[in-house]
Amino acid sequence: MASQKFDMIVIGAGPGGYVAAIRGAQLGLNVAIVEREHMGGICLNWGCIPTKALLRSSEVFHMMQRAGDYGLKAESISYDLDAVVKRSRGVAKQLNSGVAHLMKKNKVTVFMGEATLPAKGRVSVKSAKGTEDLEAANIVLATGARARELPGLEADGKRVWTYKHALQPPHMPKKLLVIGSGAIGIEFASFYNTLGADTTVVEVMDRILPVEDAEISVFAKKAFVKQGMTIREKTMVKKLDRSKDKVTAHIEQAGKVEAQEFDTVISAVGIVGNTEGLGLEALGAKVEKTHVVTDSHCRTGAPGLYAIGDLAGAPWLAHKASHEGVMVAELIAGGKPHAVTPDAIAGCTYCQPQIASVGLTEARAKEQGHDIKVGRFPFIGNGKAIALGEPEGMIKTIFDAKTGALLGAHMVGAEVTELIQGYVVARQLETTEEDLMQTVFPHPTLSEMMHESVLDAYGRAIHF
Ligand SMILES: Cc1cc2nc3c(=O)[nH]c(=O)nc-3n(C[C@H](O)[C@H](O)[C@H](O)COP(=O)(O)OP(=O)(O)OC[C@H]3O[C@@H](n4cnc5c(N)ncnc54)[C@H](O)[C@@H]3O)c2cc1C
């Protein structure tokens, strides 16, 4: 059968791929998208969205336990884990159907099947229906990533889980070990700990949430310990011995290995790119550390072949994938889009308290040779935070002392994942401390702390 021709073929319908397809179609390109499993990728089906649905349930549960703080009564509070999971799966399903609808609306041709790249400009799609051949001058790889498996710590879905198992748990953990304290590990630790699991988090680095500013890691650790979690830093899980109903973890700290029993383990030790089996090497695309090597505009070096999102490396975030998708579609359509710069991309972790950040940490700003001014503002100094019953948290801002450029912003506390975008916009518009100080923030809002943190960097904070 003759191959079907398109202007652009996208492989993978996650937030990178489906957004690239829509933007390409908006720009008048004839676009096809190939997906082997589920529209919406990891983000909508097994990542961002279903985790936030679970975390919302644990947050409401936590609020119900605190009802007395608000002068309310909630007695015999309990939960139904199956119903909590059912809600999360329902939310994922709703959004997954939404992506299929968007493809239709934008006249993107969808092929459900496994894609390979047999030659330059060619895509072969295998499905139960057989094989279909497609052709396009421009191919966008957006095949995403999967959980990293470390030898001896492999998931089995029974007692040792990856995020996929943790999203559809076969049982409620009583004694839970979470290996890895990045965003994924910490979110699951927060969810299960709030629902009552005796939770231990083990982190090999010297602090949890190691990509965040050190002060935020310390703040978050204190809050988690107060909530009953055990946090072990500079610690490594060497091996897991499994039996029917328990796992013995061999845990090394300061050169000593001890055995500890858990009924459930979540392995959250990072991700690896889905690079295998596509035929990348034959086309001249380079793979390093499981990710496709790209330039600032997601070009792989092989003509007409682009890689975006998790496949193309850190930061492994849905909004980074989507923004790269838009940029690549605009490039293919003949535009001159700006490159996506990692420092402009905010990261959010939806634990309790929430964490959000953008730009340089204090340590990185110093490493880069900036002379800096640092501002801090605590939630306890904010009227809205106190009215909400959320007095724990802080906002830290870092400025270049010479230019007044906002180098980084770091937050921990209630709703900070919604606040961070204010600083992201500020950075995008290259505002200085002066612009931010002159901006009027509405009262009473948590956002006033963003103002106060900037004022504090210049010795002008009002409410603390
Ligand atoms: C538990 C968890 C929570 C997360 N929470 C957040 C969060 O709160 N915020 C955030 O920004 N990010 C979060 N992430 C990360 C986010 O999910 C990813 O950054 C995002 O999904 C990457 O998008 P992508 O389009 O690059 O790839 P993916 O979403 O992984 O999509 C890739 C798609 O390609 C398909 N595919 C792969 N190979 C082929 C092939 N050969 N042929 C056809 N199709 C193929 C896959 O089936 C998949 O659907 C989370 C991730 C996890 C695991």
From TrEMBL:
FAD binds at residues 52, 310. Residues 6-325 form the FAD/NAD(P)-binding domain. InterPro entries: Class-I_Pyr_Nuc-Dis_Oxidored, FAD/NAD-bd_sf, FAD/NAD-binding_dom, FAD/NAD-linked_Rdtase_dimer_sf, Lipoamide_DH, Pyr_nuc-diS_OxRdtase, Pyr_nucl-diS_OxRdtase_dimer, Pyr_OxRdtase_I_AS. The keyword Cytoplasm applies. Its EC number is 1.8.1.4. SUPFAM superfamilies: FAD/NAD(P)-binding domain (SSF51905), FAD/NAD-linked reductases, dimerisation (C-terminal) domain (SSF55424). Disulfide bonds join 43-48. Signal peptide: none annotated. It comes from the Bacteria. This is Dihydrolipoyl dehydrogenase.
